[in-house]
Amino acid sequence: MHSSQSHPQSTTTTTTTNNHHHPTFPPPESESETTWVWTQIKAEARRDAECEPALATHLYSTILSHPSLDRSLSFHLANKLSSSTLLSTLLYDLFLLSFSSDPSLVSSAVADLLAVRQRDPACVSFSHCLLNYKGFLACQAQRVAHRLWLQSRRPMALALHSRVAEVFAVDIHPAARIGKSVLFDHATGLVVGETAVIGNNVSILHHVTLGGTGKVGGDRHPKIGDGVLIGAGATVLGNVKIGEGAKIGAGSLVLIDVPPRTTAVGNPARLIGGRERPVRHEDVPGYPK
Amino acid sequence: MHSSQSHPQSTTTTTTTNNHHHPTFPPPESESETTWVWTQIKAEARRDAECEPALATHLYSTILSHPSLDRSLSFHLANKLSSSTLLSTLLYDLFLLSFSSDPSLVSSAVADLLAVRQRDPACVSFSHCLLNYKGFLACQAQRVAHRLWLQSRRPMALALHSRVAEVFAVDIHPAARIGKSVLFDHATGLVVGETAVIGNNVSILHHVTLGGTGKVGGDRHPKIGDGVLIGAGATVLGNVKIGEGAKIGAGSLVLIDVPPRTTAVGNPARLIGGRERPVRHEDVPGYPK
Amino acid sequence: MHSSQSHPQSTTTTTTTNNHHHPTFPPPESESETTWVWTQIKAEARRDAECEPALATHLYSTILSHPSLDRSLSFHLANKLSSSTLLSTLLYDLFLLSFSSDPSLVSSAVADLLAVRQRDPACVSFSHCLLNYKGFLACQAQRVAHRLWLQSRRPMALALHSRVAEVFAVDIHPAARIGKSVLFDHATGLVVGETAVIGNNVSILHHVTLGGTGKVGGDRHPKIGDGVLIGAGATVLGNVKIGEGAKIGAGSLVLIDVPPRTTAVGNPARLIGGRERPVRHEDVPGYPK
Amino acid sequence: MHSSQSHPQSTTTTTTTNNHHHPTFPPPESESETTWVWTQIKAEARRDAECEPALATHLYSTILSHPSLDRSLSFHLANKLSSSTLLSTLLYDLFLLSFSSDPSLVSSAVADLLAVRQRDPACVSFSHCLLNYKGFLACQAQRVAHRLWLQSRRPMALALHSRVAEVFAVDIHPAARIGKSVLFDHATGLVVGETAVIGNNVSILHHVTLGGTGKVGGDRHPKIGDGVLIGAGATVLGNVKIGEGAKIGAGSLVLIDVPPRTTAVGNPARLIGGRERPVRHEDVPGYPK
Amino acid sequence: MHSSQSHPQSTTTTTTTNNHHHPTFPPPESESETTWVWTQIKAEARRDAECEPALATHLYSTILSHPSLDRSLSFHLANKLSSSTLLSTLLYDLFLLSFSSDPSLVSSAVADLLAVRQRDPACVSFSHCLLNYKGFLACQAQRVAHRLWLQSRRPMALALHSRVAEVFAVDIHPAARIGKSVLFDHATGLVVGETAVIGNNVSILHHVTLGGTGKVGGDRHPKIGDGVLIGAGATVLGNVKIGEGAKIGAGSLVLIDVPPRTTAVGNPARLIGGRERPVRHEDVPGYPK
Amino acid sequence: MHSSQSHPQSTTTTTTTNNHHHPTFPPPESESETTWVWTQIKAEARRDAECEPALATHLYSTILSHPSLDRSLSFHLANKLSSSTLLSTLLYDLFLLSFSSDPSLVSSAVADLLAVRQRDPACVSFSHCLLNYKGFLACQAQRVAHRLWLQSRRPMALALHSRVAEVFAVDIHPAARIGKSVLFDHATGLVVGETAVIGNNVSILHHVTLGGTGKVGGDRHPKIGDGVLIGAGATVLGNVKIGEGAKIGAGSLVLIDVPPRTTAVGNPARLIGGRERPVRHEDVPGYPK
Lengths: 289, 289, 289, 289, 289, 289
Fold this sequence. Notes:
The structure is a homohexamer. Chain A is of the alpha/beta class. Chain A is built from eight helices and 15 strands. In chain A, strand 14 and strand 15 form a beta hairpin. The longest helix of chain A is centred in the first third of the chain and has 19 residues, at 33-51. The first copy, chain A, starts with 32 loop residues before the first helix and ends in a 15-residue tail after the last strand. Chains in contact: A-B, A-C, A-D, A-E, A-F, B-C, B-D, B-E, B-F, C-D, C-E, C-F, D-E, D-F, E-F.
């Protein structure tokens, strides 16, 4: 959380960041990504608990007392999203069962953790993201709600959606499809409509709307390609296609398709040049910091 | 929640929506609107509780254990807005007494429920709106706060206002006047100032501000006419008049009067043509989806 | 809360407000500012408790049962920011200790209270601000988090930051530096990055972002000079300097330096004239209402 | 609470207590008993709130913010007896409705308050009893449960009974009949069976059991006459009759009828002489302190 | 709960109870006992929820939303025993894991439910016992604590024990061994020491102590044989043996062995005759009502 | 908790217990008793947290995150005794201030911890007692309430008393005077009247009543000398004097003075022989296990 915004006028500049404080990635082949990340999280939490005894309770409760990432995440989400009429034990059951039935939910969470760590210079550790990032937590809850939606458990999906919208001020319809390695930075005020699709490696800042135009029913929300970066306060409306690696400037209003590797800025947005450079990992706009 | 946005460039197109999944409306003349809607809500909740036992507790607690809409709504709001120093029983008392003393509060809630159902394609049922729509709940709480304000119970009105702003991230001053059949869609970040007035059949999306200009005291906020539609992220400042049936494009900054049936878009906003067509029910811009 | 917005086109007009309902300020020399404000707050709360018995519990709990402002504020923040894994007693300890160790935290809170009272016509009393203003409460909690950050207690600083972001939808990085007499009006959706600096007498409305551009690491966020006013929904990105007494129009996107006493409006923002008048207290744009 | 026990060997001594600190009773004829007691309670609470600001919150919440005794009592019982699956608002409704439907529940509560005040030297005020006496609160909740039982709402009666048994460690079956002006002193561990009957002006200390013998079904529990006093730890088993004005010594095991104005002591209990004196108000053993 | 006590003087009388309102038992052979009882519980809860909508929330939350008895019981115990530092989700995990690892815990719970139903005329249904009987719930929690104790997880066993002692006022050391088909009636104040053993088919009333004599360490608490009945308030001290089918009168103090099928009454207790009758099912003193 | 009872018939036997698992006591002279005990508690909690990760949260919250015994105890009591109208932060303040104003409260708590550890073979560690012993916690809260009582803060003293009686089922009047090195074992149902006095080194089991006889006002409750042991379920009534080192048998009813080093048993109690042996530390009946 807390740091960067796309500068629309200058996307042709290569963004190079020396993330020398980041862990070596990818992890050694001899262990799975999930195991490796979970081991990191435990070590970070243990270190923090030692430095800051006043926080130890919180860290043991949310991380250190759990045997695995999915249980930690289930516990944390259940406590955050519970209300006087939706008890934490009920939500805990729901999350645990979802994570154990669909391992892709856990691997997506791990991919998101790695994405946040790599793209957000203000993120100091995996545990920091796991515990504190509203966007990360909202995204994991939405993936569970999406799974419920696909299983035709719509009332439960919408109840979960409602709690996420209330607690995190992040409002993603459970029917929306979200890829992997996604970063919802700061996240307050994010609104994503029912038929929206968000690809892999996408970074979206706060106050962003992926909405409808109000003119048509059915498939009426934006389709966001892989590696897209959308700046703070941008509004994208209608069943438009934002191409792979495109950038949407902060505060823009986008009502048209944006071709791949192109930047759109302004209200209403205009396109300001594609990028012809071959795409290397560090060039994908979703990794700008 | 979660779906539609005004497309400012295309408001001349008639918006036709086949709401074939919506209930026949108006209800049969032989029963009151409130009774009819409450019956629908109970039936929906009963059906959902049967399909989804894990949600039954929530549905019984909020809807099925109550004999009437005003008690259900009082209970739901009291639990959502309570805090460690504002107990739910106290708020419950306050809401119950308000609803029973002023039946127009209940009929306005019913009108809002019908409006949401008709205008928001993502709204799957009345109970969905009653339980989950932050904008709907914030609006009902504001109407009660407004009543307290008029009774010179300002500290209580402001305490209620504060809880709504915190819990729902919807910040409507208790002195603001709000009409009937209002839809606050998504609602996160909505800010409405002290001397603002919102007419009937108005639809307002999230991140909208109806604010002052900071230059004058007294009557300093916008007056929104009947049937107006205001898109996401729009900012309307000053004691300006937005005429009946006008549309404000998403992301617009409006500092001037907007005539009836006219659309304003851009930052700063410019007007893009009035509409001469006779106003039919389905043409009022408040019903665009 | 709830009232005014900067009107970018008209900042040359002198803003004169007859705050005749405001207390005479500064307070008599014979007593300290903190004591005077606390006495006012107690008197207001006592009056409100008498008029509105239903609110007396809330007022006694938060104000009237406490011997001093710092204890009242610690109590109020601890209860609001507690969660099932961060108990209110722990947070209460943390706030109490911070306020007693660093008296400037209390004097800054008092300065903010006076600023809100003077600049926001919708603020009816000091106690109203102390109890209900999300921006005020978030700011005080951030100052404590900032102190923890400087003491290298980063995990605790970030935990506090996370709770503020979740409860108030106000997201100010604990490393950001904030001056005195600051008004965060409405405050929902405010985002302030890690290396941002906010001067004295600054007024910032809701949905404002002081973010990075994503191109560079290190010192990458805006520096806001004394007396600046930033309108609702404005986005200021990059390590730019907003000069003393400048105004940023609502909904503007600012990517460049803004000279002192100059107004910037639009997306992207353009400058519309400096002010040559000698700066008097009542002319500083942070006091526009 | 906390004071006196029957001394079985010495009941023939006239018990004279100088309750000079007690209010003059009965209250002036010009007002009802309920109104008079409620006025006293409010005055006491107001005085305590002034002396002890730290307690003001508690006193406003439970007493001073309520317009009448039945609302105060409903609020207090609802908060004490609520659980994560029996919400306080639901119980509040239940108590409010019961008290308003059956005014005898309120007048019985008032009679109990007067009884406690007159018989227990450790009771310093009506508000002290209303807020703090487990026996008083358990008794009022039982009367409501009894009413539900008679209305064939047995599951609700038993749920209420269960909460009382858990919260107060007082276990009175909802079918048991209890008179007026009853004092359950200390009350911890009191057990009263399904077919037991307790008359008017009865005083029962803690750890007392009015149970069955296990040999027969049907009407199998003791019948306690008016004005009886039962000492701490006494066990009365079977469908026996304890006559008017009788005394049961502390720690006694009673398996036989006890004639009026007679004392029973020991394990098993033996009778130690009736009392021939004409019964005056101050002689009834239920008023011994 | 709520009914019967042993009558020490009359144990030679055959106790015949016409439990005509009880379900036919044993259940049909074609299904397991656990399944059959769970089916009954669901049916009872469904019927109660229909009759009493105000209780439906409670019944769905605790019973109807769960797929099996062990999940329902885990949920109910976790919510009842949770505290601000022992979260319900943690306890839920602990109970779920215990029940699934050791099916005898579930079958013991079922045996207890059947025992309560058969012996306590005041028990109106299985669900009534499952939800409301402190003795039943304390016993199930103790069995889980006992399992933790045997696994050398003593701190957790003692933490659980402590919560049970606090919430239910039932204090059974986790090292004590408890058989099947046990009835702890009313249960308030029951204290069972570390080296005590309780056999099968035992019925123990409230305020009973199975304690040590304070003279020796090691194995120092009573051993209670199968089918024993211990009346309310009885105190059994030291490593004494209460033989199969014996009865201990209410209020007795037992410091010596009691032979099988013998009754002990008084303080100190004396034996009042063995029973020579052949033991039939309905004659075992554990089934007296 | 959970173990031993006085055996009335055999108090002449020297009670020797090999508490070889207990810490060497007294602690080394070079440190204070309080420091030494607190160091032990921290070490125990740390060891338990390592063995039982599921309990680490609880242990950090209650012990390991605190710098001193008085803060740990204040936190623990505040959380246990809080209610919806008596917030934990308020109680935390009250306890913290009491402990810091009156260091004898802390040294008494330490003396009690040492007493429990030495006399109760079921007590496995200091932390076990600190966290889990109802009698220990009730006693510490009573000492604070007693201090408030002496300061004429009676409403607060009674409010605290009421919470202790409700939460722990231990009912000690705040005016009662209690010595040091006191053990209230199991503690459920303990009732101590207003004018009772309890000396040093006293051990009292559960269900004990130190009550009045109901015949006189004023000084009407028992005076318990140093080193007295009172067995479970004993009832001592009236202003009688129980001499130093006396023993009261379980289940006894005592209405007369008991000379020093004498044992009283039965209902009513008779004396069974004084002890002429010179009193050595290990002979004082308060240390029987």
